[in-house]
Amino acid sequence: MDTYQVLSILSALGIIIAFLNQYVMRMQTTIAITSGALAISIIMLVLGKTLWPQLEVIAVNLISRIHFGDFVLEGVLGFLLFAGGLGINLNALKSQKWEIAVLVFLGVTVSTLLIACGLSLLGQMLGSHIPFVYCLLFGALISPTDPIAVLAIVKKMGAPGQIAIQIEGESLFNDGIGLVIFLSIFAVAFGGQEASIGEVAYLFAHEAVGGILFGALLGLLAHFMISATDDGPMELLITLCLPTAGFAIAQLLEVSGALAMVVSGIIISNWTRYSGFSEGSKTYLDEFWTLLDEFFNALLFLLIGLAMVVIKFEAMLIFYSLLVIPLVLAARFLSVALPYVVFRRLRKYPPYSVRLLTWGGLRGGLSLAMALSIPAGYTLGSQGQYDLRFAFVAMTYVIVLFSILVQGSTIGPMIQRARKSESSANGVAASSGG
Fold this sequence. Notes:
Layout: H1 3-21, H2 29-49, H3 53-64, H4 68-86, H5 90-95, H6 97-125, H7 132-142, H8 147-153, H9 161-190, H10 197-227, H11 232-252, H12 257-275, H13 279-306, H14 315-346, H15 353-359, H16 365-372, E1 379-380, E2 386-387, H17 388-433
Antiparallel strand pairs: 1-2
Helix pairs in contact: 1-2, 1-13, 2-3, 2-13, 2-17, 4-11, 4-12, 4-13, 4-16, 6-7, 6-9, 6-14, 7-9, 8-9, 9-10, 9-12, 10-11, 10-12, 11-12, 11-13, 14-15, 14-17, 15-17, 16-17
């Protein structure tokens, strides 16, 4: 089978799991798809090593046809981020702009440094030398919360409004910032560039600022084109050009396509929706992009579960991963809690804010795609016994599975407690005011 046929069959499999989930597991859809795909992977690996040796070979060959990193970073990422941008209320975003900006820039940077220091110390304790630039690289790829996972799981559970916009806004923007930080460290680690502040600042400005400006330009161009026609299908087709041609051009310009898609989506949703679209298209806009969002999410989370078939695991790497999970969570907590010390002096926030932002900071396909982009041939360990790429991919995969399956499935009760606590606080305030 060629790649198109494999993707077609896997898409159907993801939809079938989502369909059965309505009647059997009744879990959140993306968690159910990931769990189902993971179960299929385990069954194939067990059968391949016992009763049907050829099955493992077939499974590996099929899944290997899909280059996961390219599929995410150069494929579905543009669609899913544009769809996420369409769901952002600009007025609500403005009310939390400083909090989101601090969480995006400072949060990702602090988390990257904390994870890098922790991983370096962990390597020394276990007798495995990990160059600090590689520790920074891992911190950069695992620190950004994944907007695809966050929007697919947390947003649909109805977190308190003030926290929901922080979670949504941070996840949509910090993946672009995280990608820029990752690429900057990547260039130093593998590109032979000097780790000068000026060089890193230039790469950051070119990618991040360039992506935001290019996204604004795309959004404005699409707005005027949509405003110039009353043809409903044509209006929707113009929006489809943004995450396809627009994302491709952003990559050619070497600016952040991720940030460009978020910005253009916000413009279309908050301006064009009300002054550009014909009346009939306003309804179809959300339905059309919700459909695409659900389809690509189903396929992406299915591939995350099936990726176990092709990822190489060793006992020591799994042990490392289990130790790194609390390190990643601790870095996330500190990168959120420290800014909140200042935030709470300026504004009142709902209870559970820090806990929700910490536990709801899910990692997903984006981190795995960045790990897969690391070139082979570099080694870790005092004797060079681990391939850097395989080690980071395995560690990232374990963390991503924990994030989606454990954090994703347990965030719901925390959100419910937060909503009840907020309602009680509002009720007490209303009584006192009365």
